[in-house]
Amino acid sequence: MVTVLSDLAQHVAKGLRQTPKAISSMYFYDDAGSRLFQQIMELPEYYPTRAEFSIFREHGAAIVAALSPEAGEEFALVELGAGDGAKTKLLLHELLEAGRPFTYVPVDISEGAMTGLVAALRQELPELQVAPAVSDYFTALHQLRTRPGSKAVLFLGSNIGNFHPAERLSFLSQLAAPLAPTDRLLIGFDLQKDPRRIRAAYDDAQGVTAAFNLNLLTRLNRELGADFDLAHWQHYTDYSPLNGAVRSFLVSTRAQQVHIEALDETFDFAAWEVIHTENSYKFTLPQIEELAASAGLRVVTAFTDAETDFADVVLATQAE
Questions:
Q1: Number of domains in the chain
Q2: Quick check: helix, strand or coil at residue 144?
Q3: What is the SS3 assignment for 196-239?
Q4: 98 with 229, same domain?
Q5: Would you call the peptide bond into 20 cis, given omega within 30 degrees of 0 as the criterion?
Q6: Among the four 153, 252, 254, 297, which has the fewest Cβ within 10 Å?
Q7: What pTM, to 2 d.p., does this model score?
């Protein structure tokens, strides 16, 4: 009998067989992980969410003008990974108040998250035209190519920083491919700053980030029948100002074996061996311009908060 492994099981099998061991941060977000991340965003050390909110509050009207078609025709505001839409609601209010004709197209692979967002929007902004898409990013964007009118695509937060450099360029190139010359792309970039502040944002004093990272092992125990003993694992993070990379790890505090029932396999861990779980790159504005050019895009304008902690960058195709 052939056993069909889940995507998670296949990913874990590949990640724990390699050296160094690694599991993608995309698997942080089960229900408990999502709740913990909501707590992280409220921590005093975690500046990115507050910084982006301040950008939208301070520059909302200018951002709307930069994203909207000049001729005033109807367009689609497409948000990749919409989540709860908290920050986006600031832009939606600005668009509605400005009388811009548009349809909001939130894209998320989670049907549950999408249902909750649409219900909240119908209650808070009943006049808003919403066309939700439960899909992966690129399928949704390619389907929108046949839709009349232009598009403004949002990829908010600092999610772009979770990609390795080669993956980041590939991702941006794929985002650029379906864009027409009049379309716009708004991406959030966490900027380089005091290295101590950056590191503290990923290793807070209350230990919420540690719980968020360790919850990944709890998920593997629950969903794959693993037997990780969390008492013998710890969270560790570092930041390199040389390449702008925050790296997060789960560290085995002793030599141990972990059996994963779904894989029918046992994995050996040496004392202080790590599982690499996340990258979060920080950028400079010149690096963003260089990255955009490599992906066939150009920077139209960039908005930063007062402390220059974060940038929301409007991009367009190089041909216009």
A1: 2
A2: helix
A3: HHHHHHCCCCCCHHHHHHHHHHHHHHHHHCECCCHHHEEEEEEE
A4: no
A5: yes
A6: 254
A7: 0.91
